[in-house]
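USER: I would love a firmer grasp of how sequence relates to backbone shape in proteins. This is the protein in question:
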Amino acid sequence: MKTNYIGLIFLWLFLFIACSESDEPIPPPEPPPSENEAEKVMEQLWSTSCLNYNSPREKAFEAIQGYADLCSDTYFKNYLKSLDAAAGNREKYDPILTCYKVSFDKVVEEVRSTQVENGSTVIWMLYNMGYLVKTPDGCFGIDICHRYAEQLEPYLDFLCVTHNHSDHYSTELINQMFDNNKPVLSNYLKKGEGYAYTSSSTSAYTIGRFTVTTNINDHNTSLTNFVTTFQVDCGSNGGNLVLMHVGDSNYKASQYHVLKPVNVFMARYAPNALTENQVIGEVVTPEYVFLSHILELAHAGVDESRWPIAKGLERASQLNCRNAVLPFWGEKLIWKNNQLTKERK
């Protein structure tokens, strides 16, 4: 036993000397993971405007699409369900989740800090079909769906939910709104019996200086009368902006009853090509169309309505509106003097 032990010592010494005299250079230590470029890509995107498509915006979109293509719906759903520490680690090293998180951080900070000029309205695109709208009189959200959505509650006066599909709402945010007695408008949510903001028919509400009118639309041939569309008049202090968000409407013209001319029409990318134009340019003639429901990461692919950016840009170019654009995560637009302009730095 002692002989074997001594033999092992001599063998170790021989190998140590042989390696020390080798001409082979000692390999350097592996570098730490390279800096996540996704944050820089989002900054590049935000330096451009959806109102003016250009080469830097195209390059940013190409990078973002590449990140998204590596993210399966299963991976994203697992991220949404993960504990905060695990989610934070993924956001640090996975580029599409970096985009997702930094864009939320940008929006929540700007919603909190932005002092809106009288006669204007500020609009943020959050994710999928989620928008935040702020005027001098208040702030509201429509179809807010995000892992961190409840962080927006302190800054919202009311919330609109177009329909009961999980990519159009956040349960945590809704519960926070209910807990703080803030209106949540929908066709299915009820804080209690006789809740004033739940309606499955055409309705009208006045909340502060906002006037909200709803219609009920089909989602598809199976889910009839399933989607609430919201037409919101932001009032004179908001520059008389009238916007309309249609959720996952399937664009049946007979279901649209528009009371006032619409300035900004927030549209879903229609699975049945160009059915958007059954309404846009026919029933509604907006100055701007925001084409949405692009890169919904919880959907499996095009067959499940996970529309890539390129398809969104192509579809926007075919809509019956000269200013049909594709806002993306974290973008901020300002309505003033009857037109939209890019975020001011």
Q: What stands out?
A: Helices lie at 2-20, 38-46, 55-69, 73-81, 84-93, 95-113, 171-179, 309-318. The CA atoms of residues 139 and 156 lie 5 Å apart. Residues 1-33 have pLDDT under 50 and may be disordered. The chain is about 30% helix and 20% strand.
